[in-house]
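Problem 12. The chain below contains 233 residues. Write out its predicted structure in token notation.
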Amino acid sequence: MERRSFLSLASLLPLAMPVALVPDVGPASTRLAPPEKGPIDVAFLISEGATVIDFTGPWEVFQDTMVAARGAAHADQMPFRLFTVADGPDTVRATGGLRLTPDYTVDNAPTPRVIVVPAMKTSPRVLDWLRQASPKADLTMSVCTGAFQLARAGLLKGRPATTHHDYIDALAREFPDVQVQRGRRFVESGPFATAAGLTSGIDLALRVVERYFGTDVAATTAAFMEYDRRKLG
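Solution.
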């Protein structure tokens, strides 16, 4: 769906998105710096059995984000460029039977600035790609049990993190070096962030938009999506 009227959407914000629910970006240490020109590449890992809403929820957030100040052309105003990455080139079947052919494999994927890891099956190759790509990214985020994949890659060691409430005890048992946080919608820790599960990935993706472009852009995106954004944490 093409974004046609940024100003008309912004005029609806007082009704669609109460300001009290949307915190400010916070201290400078939490902000992410977008490039002055060009897109922010976002890589979505997928696999057989990947949970659909874990990656399609954030996908929708990023594809709906519009920043009019970035340029006159529509393409310039849409700051995120999205693509899927898998272990290999073959079509995979996500939950509910959704069939997806990855845009790239871990062998040829462009270097992303944001990485999204849903609940999914993993492999040594995918974990190696995470270890190599995450240090070059602005942010690596997981949704639901995607946190287990970050932990298996050694990326959450000593960091606070969360996951779906049904699996939070398992995360704590399997990875005692992770500071497991309970009852949190999402948790941020430097260049990593973890969401509790399913729809919480939408909230975390909106937070990523906020960290790049500020509260107003995140609020406008949520309003366009007809989404009532949840409070932080």
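Discussion. Residues 68 and 77 are 5 Å apart (CA to CA). Students who got a different answer should revisit the alignment rule from Section 12.3.
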